[in-house]
Design brief:
mainly beta, 93 residues, OB fold (Dihydrolipoamide Acetyltransferase, E2P), four-stranded antiparallel sheet, globular
């Protein structure tokens, strides 16, 4: 994350810009729930179908898997986090 101060018409605004790699694939939560476990670390190589995160929703454990082969660029959640549908869990390059 980079932080900048931008002035528009004499008013200063503080903004943050998240850096993501070009071509990165965001793996998003398919439903709201709790993160029970994070199975990967940044920099790990994964194959399509490998488990990335375990999401508990409606008292069921759901493995969220890699949609394609790649390398884990970022992990955007931690064990114990509560997520909403559409929240980014992991990004892959």
């Amino acid at each position: 994350m980079k932080y900048y101060t931008i002035t528009v018409n004499g008013v200063a605004y503080s903004v943050s810009v998240e850096e993501t790699a070009a071509g990165a694939v965001a793996v998003k939560a398919p439903m709201p729930g709790n993160i029970l476990d994070v199975k990967v670390k940044p920099g790990a190589s994964v194959k399509a179908g490998d488990a990335l995160v375990v999401l508990e929703a409606m008292k069921m454990e759901n493995e969220i898997v890699a949609p394609q082969d790649g390398t884990v660029a970022t992990i955007d959640v931690n064990k114990g986090d509560v997520v909403n549908s559409g929240d980014t869990l992991v990004t892959l390059n």
